[in-house]
Structures are given as C-alpha cells and as structure tokens.
Amino acid sequence: MSEWKEFKLTDISDIFDEIRVPLSKMERVSRKGKYPYYGASGIIDHVDDFLFEGEYVLISEDGENLKTRQTPIAFKANGQFWVNNHAHIVKGKALFINDLIVYVLQNLDLHPFLTGAVQPKLNQENLLSIPFSLPVDENEQRAIASILSSLDDKIDLLHRQNKTLEAMAEALFKKWFVEEAEDGWENVELEYVAKKITDGSHQSPSSTDTGMPMASVKDMHQWGINYSTCRKISKVDYQKLVRDDCRPLKDDILIAKDGSYLKHIFFVPEDMNLVVLSSIAIIRPNGKYHPILLSIFLKMDSTKELLKNIVTGAVIPRIVLKDFRKFPIILPTISEQKKSLEIIEPLITKCYQNIKKIYTLESLRNTLLPKLMSGEVKVNNV
Question: Are strands 42-47 and 87-92 parallel, antiparallel or unpaired?
C-alpha cells in the first residue's frame, strides 16, 4: 500500500508573488501589446511586456469567486505573460507538480482559509498553510497527474475543435448572407421571424437543497447551460415556471440579456429540463429564419456592435426587449437558407456532439479527482 503524506505548498513549489506588478486600466491602455495580463480568474487584458516565461500555476488571491467557484480558482499559465497582485503565482519543483497543485485546490474546501467578510481573500500566509495530501512516491504523484491531465487534454482538444468549427460556420455565413447578400432579400424586424421574444421569470423562487434547476445568465456558457451551477427550486415552483413558458424548448435561441449581455448566444438543440430567470432572453423562431443561422448572425461581432445601441443601465447593463424585437435584419430566402444548411448544419451538429463528449469527460474527471487525490482509488486500478 502506498504511503501518503501532508505537504505544504513550499515543499512542492516555489512562490513568485514578489515579482507580480499591478497595472491600472489607464496604464494598460497605454501599454497595449501581445502578452496576456492575468488577474484572479484569468486573462483580463494584453500588454507590451511580460514578467514570467514558462509554465506556472496562478491561484486567486481575492474575489467572490473564491467562494462561488464560477471559474477555476487555480489554473496553469504558459508562455510569456504578466500577472497582477490579485493572483498568487507558484511553480512546481517538477513540471507535473503544477497539475497536482491545480487538482488539489480544485478539490479543496477553501472556506477555512479565507478572510474578509465583504471581499473574500486568500492571503499568502493562509495559502502556505494549506495541507497538500500526496503520495510520497514521486512516480505515483506523476501517474495521478498524468491520468487527470490526459482527461483535461482531451477536453481542451474538443473545445479547440469547436472553436474551429464555429469559426468555419461563421465565415461561411458571412460570405453567403452578408458579403453576397442579394438585393431582393427582405429587410425585416427581428420579431417578424419569431413566435415570441421574451425573457425568463421576473420572480425568483426560493432555493432548495434538491429539486429542479433554475438558470440565470451566470450559468450560461458558449454552447449551453452549466446545470451544476444552477440553483435548485421545488418541483411546484418549477412546474409553475414551465406553465409560464420559462422553459427553453428545442430550436429556441437563448441570449445573455443582463449583466454580461451578449456574452453567450446559442440555439437549443433539444428541450431543456430547466427554467430560466429574466437575465436570459428567449427567441422562439417561427420557421422564417432557421435557428442555427439566426444564432450565428446574432453572435457575429458586427451584430453585437449594433446591438449595443439597445442596451441600457449603467450599473447592470441589459438589453431592452422592446427595442430588441424591432432590431433590423436581412432575411435570406428559404431556398438559400436550405442550401447553406447542407454545409453549416453538420458543423454545428458536430459542435454539440463534442459538447456531450466534454460533459462525459468532465464528469469522469470530477468523479476520479477526489478519489485519486485522497488515495481511495489507486492509479494502477484506473
């Protein structure tokens, strides 16, 4: 039986917090460049120089995300980059240790190590006090990292494939329906191609420990809804919201409406077993414009730029639905849509197939992670 031991972060890595340098927004504007500028939850800008080169682990130092875990609180950064003072930066004493640091923190309840009532903070002293339970045998450490990182590599490959497929679909759409748009196509308002354009529930039922999922804009991602982060509500409240038509159905288009407006836009390939709150808008097409094509149009940067004109709110920006319904679009003929879908639809279908594979791999990784990191499952049994 393998021997396990509690390590401290300084036993397995070196700390480089003293090299971090924060840059104000004004400073970053004057220093635009190609090098990623990292904060607590990832890249927030690009600047003209770098502080670090190679592979490191960044660990969130402050922010509500330390409690909510909407984004990873520990992640690897590679290449040449800059880090501000909102992320600790460490480097494993062996390269594979970087992966283990990420996986331990991903599986750890950080609440006992956080300070700050208003703004959660993981200061360096508390970070260095966190116990990292690992096998003493370096070969076993390496094997655990290899198993988990191989799953992450597969997930990353599928995400990158989706980016390529989506870019191909958008390029084809732009060529056929923007650059080569025909004079005879109709100029219509968005509501002309929809049965309805609305949003989710404006009433937020009480949360329950178990029940049915209710999504808000924070639960959206590029291709769907993250069910694991949704609040749970009672079946009675869920059924009421279903009756109120707050459940997304096949061929609907969902749009981030409030807060991070327009960040996520996707069509729904099958009925969803959840309901949505008012921070998410729902377009229910009426057959005049195929939902795959309409969603691609709405996702285009040029469309998003125009949609900014119908956004209001200084603190929480939101799309104004009455103006959104009147948004002008060019409507291709049904025959042109069908012809384009022969090529575009398989690309988008493949993306959704990849998403299902990603969900499966993430579920496997998340199941294995605590078991491998606790020693409950041995690497030679995987």
Answer: unpaired
For residue 182, the tally of other CB atoms under 10 A from its CB is 11
Nearest to residue 71, comparing CAs of 98, 117, 100, 105?
Answer: 105
Output the pLDDT for position 381: 64
Contacts of 167 (CB under 8 A, 6+ apart): none
Q: pTM for the complete prediction?
A: 0.83
Sign of the alpha-carbon dihedral angle for 314, 316, 317, 321: negative
Give CA–CA dist 7/70, Å, rounded: 27
Q: pLDDT tens-digit profile of 55-110?
A: 999 999 999 889 888 788 999 999 999 999 999 999 999 989 999 999 999 888 89
The two tokens of residue 170 are 């958008």
Q: Are strands 87-92 and 13-15 parallel, antiparallel or unpaired?
A: antiparallel
| Nearest Cα residue to 87 out of 149, 25, 44 | 44
The edge-to-edge listing of strands for the beta sheet with 231-233 is 231-233, 212-215, 275-276
Vertex 249, ends 244 and 255: CA angle to 5°? Answer: 85
What band does 360 get if pLDDT is binned at 50, 70 and 90?
Answer: very high
